[in-house]
Amino acid sequence: MTELKGFNLARVEKRVDWTGELFSLRLSGAPLSFKAGQFTKLALLDDDGTTISRAYSVVNAPSEQFDWLEFLIVANPQGQLTPKLQKLNTGDTVYVGQSAHGDLTHDTIPKQANDLWLLSTGTGIGPFLSLLDDINLLPHSDNIVLAHGVRYEKDLVYQYLIEQLQNRYEGRLRYLPIVSRETLNGKLNGRIPELISSGALVDRAGLQFSKDNSFVMMCGNPEMIKDTSPVLQQLGLEKYRAQTGGNIIYERYW
Ligand SMILES: Cc1cc2nc3c(=O)[nH]c(=O)nc-3n(C[C@H](O)[C@H](O)[C@H](O)COP(=O)(O)OP(=O)(O)OC[C@H]3O[C@@H](n4cnc5c(N)ncnc54)[C@H](O)[C@@H]3O)c2cc1C
Ligand SMILES: NC(=O)c1ccc[n+]([C@@H]2O[C@H](COP(=O)([O-])OP(=O)(O)OC[C@H]3O[C@@H](n4cnc5c(N)ncnc54)[C@H](OP(=O)(O)O)[C@@H]3O)[C@@H](O)[C@H]2O)c1
């Protein structure tokens, strides 16, 4: 296949189809130096040879043992790249960026952040799974809340990994699945900002948001981030800036 500047060619090791739209790709053979929580680019060539590249978060943590990279992707039928990625099979090739970026990383979390809130929607859970799975740099916070907002129960991916992580964190990690388009026993129903405003999220987490103890990382749907930020600010939390610190950092997926 043609060489592409800034990319390595990777082999698809496997594709896991979680639902009709949601899938994971495990890729090998493309060396990438990255921190847990970062993203790189995936690319394919269009029929006329034009490069189509988009950003994707790595779901696994960096490891000296394994050279593969895993990505969680939702296919947008009208999108340019995702329908092509969804058709890849074991043995196919795809371009992977040679550099990684993003601030949803361990070194952004302030030392005094006793309560770490990881708020995600859809595929935005990916970087948080990577962050939590990095055995060399486990977040030091006493309490970690992983909230995952999805439309339907079937979109609650990586349950086996989340169970493993909960065991590894020995009670420090609380997982809060949130489903918006179905009502399910034992699960929060609705959207993240409304569940924070109503108190339902903190009740379920058994923790309060506080300016002194909380650090909030958000990832996924930009509307969730837009609606959640003012709710957190009303509770006294401030947007994080590298120079001055703060409580809220996020990554928008579109
Ligand atoms: C930093 C960063 C990290 C990202 N990581 C991931 C990831 O790990 N997994 C992933 O699936 N996507 C991720 N994205 C989105 C991804 O880069 C593409 O935009 C997306 O896959 C759509 O590409 P496309 O060519 O199929 O659609 P396009 O032709 O580019 O159409 C884009 C439209 O698709 C919708 N859209 C884009 N991304 C999503 C999404 N994740 N969930 C719901 N709707 C979406 C929006 O309406 C957007 O306007 C990330 C984006 C950024 C900026
Ligand atoms: N998941 C599916 O079954 C499905 C089916 C067909 C196509 N798709 C494709 O996949 C794309 C992404 O779907 P997705 O389900 O992964 O992601 P999504 O549309 O971002 O939905 C994920 C979660 O974010 C919530 N959300 C949306 N806006 C919000 C806001 N302003 N504040 C707080 N929460 C908000 C949604 O709630 P609401 O439910 O209230 O919006 C849902 O619980 C779609 O655009 C579509 O192309 C997905």
UniProtKB/TrEMBL annotation:
PROSITE patterns: FAD_FR. Belongs to the ferredoxin--NADP reductase type 1 family. Keywords: Nucleotide-binding. Its EC number is 1.18.1.2. Residues 5-107 form the FAD-binding FR-type domain. Gene3D superfamilies: Nucleotide-binding domain of ferredoxin-NADP reductase (FNR) module, Translation factors. It comes from the Bacteria. It is an enzyme of class 1 (oxidoreductase). It holds the Pfam family NAD_binding_1. The lineage of its organism: Bacteria, Pseudomonadati, Pseudomonadota, Gammaproteobacteria, Vibrionales. This is ferredoxin--NADP(+) reductase.
